[in-house]
Amino acid sequence: MRVGIAGAGMIVPTFLDAAALVEQMEIYAVFARREEVRKEFCEKYQIPVGYDSYEKLLGDPKVDVVYVALPNNLHFSFAKEALKAGKHVILEKPFTVTYEEAKEIADLAREKKLYLFEAITTQYNPNYDKMKELLPRLGEIKLVALNFSQYSSRYDNFKKGIVSPSFDPKNAGGALMDLNIYNIHFVAGLFGKPLKVRYCPNMERGVDTSGILVMEYPDFQAVCIAAKDCGAPLSVSVQGNRGFFHSDYASSILAGFSFQENKCEPENYHLADNPERLFYELLTFTKYYEAEDWEAFDKRLDHSLMVMEILDAARKPENQGL
Length: 322
Known about the structure:
Distance between the termini: 49 Å
Oligomer: single chain
Order of helices and strands: EHEHEHEHEHEHEHHEEEEEEEHH
Number of helices: 10
Number of strands: 14
């Protein structure tokens, strides 16, 4: 499979390092408007072709899959154009800005029999798969709490009025879309769609720099904390009446976790042994792609749509604040 990359942001080198470990994935082309950026990527990562326009990338018949790694507000339009051009799409998180956008490109992908895949580390981590396997042994779930808080390297500039896309409301920036999205995927992947959501954001200059999202299920509450304006120990906890899971990693990485049943010794798991955090999602995509596993792609697409519904609900004024 030959992959063309749309974008040259901070996530792209991470993607390239992971893709280099997936034998079946060949990075064939990159689109970046700035010539010096294109040349740097092509030389450093031995990418054969650099394009100065997205249209040229999409017009290349050798490109099978387009990886969209652009600011959040561009995900929808760039994914849509790639699908219209007959390309499969790996789309960085968050899937789109709204559920309506997500539904439109999902319908288009299904209509054209093309793969549309959200690049979200949470869902493909072997430790997460193990949690799913062990989940029934926790008994009745009582509390779920996740904290993904890290002081952003761009926050000081934001305070000075220098606004990067990740803090720009016009680019769908903010803590909910940038960090809490991982927590939402994590919880929804284990327990499905919540009955209700409530979001309590800390707002600065029109964007949520941190916030607490509560996802209400029939018998328990899940609390998802994310912050770009302050830091805290990263953590994931799922508590049941017969035991619990705990991890000192962010939900996006989950490099390990402990499982402890009541009055028993803890069991420790570190199954994600590949250091490249995007490796497992790209490996999964490749397996689905080679097997032409439409059912698996459809299942992942339904999950992404569910998460977009949760995001939409969290941003409604009636669902914000205490």
